[in-house]
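REVIEWER CHECKLIST
Item 1: Sequence provided? yes
Item 2: Single chain? yes
Item 3: Sequence as submitted:
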Amino acid sequence: MKLLKDRILKDGKCFPGGILKVDKFINHQLDPNLMKQIAVELIRRYASSDINKILTVEASGIAPAIMMGFLLDLPVVFAKKKKPSTMGDMLSTTVFSFTKQREYHMVISKEYLQPTDKVLFIDDFLAYGNAAKGIIDLCKQSGAELVGMGFIIEKAFQKGREVIEKEGIRCESLAIIDSLDNCEIKLREE
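Item 4: Structure as written out by the authors:
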């Protein structure tokens, strides 16, 4: 997706340790027009898929997921990273966050992820695949069918795609970063 790649090169910032900061337009300050184009492209890529729900993880996945839900007229469910006191019967798994360098519990109410659901998972980044593993686990626990996973940006050098494809799940990324060595953003040409 050329528009997204151009924006990454223009406004993305690289930090040591494989960190790409895109908070100017994706995950702190949002560009709604770009987010709409991202949603339209992910919808195009999954157009033939039979889905009835969009699934994501708080917080940065919510913006693209809600845009897709709006355009497709589908409900959006986000996994919470802390169990609310109001949540009773829930699904839970443990995930390690690369960004925060800590483990957290990912939870979803059983009421909102059921065996009849055919879900598409959407998130901002695919790195090591830890959030994806958590979502795969929650879907297995619920009996829901995970139709696919879509990401705005994939850091290919961190091998998260392998985790997803090993489970036989379709994976789509709109911009793939092959390297951030020497704090230079190297995007894959497709």
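Item 5: Key structural point noted by reviewer: The chain has one domain: 2-187.
Item 6: Recommendation: ____
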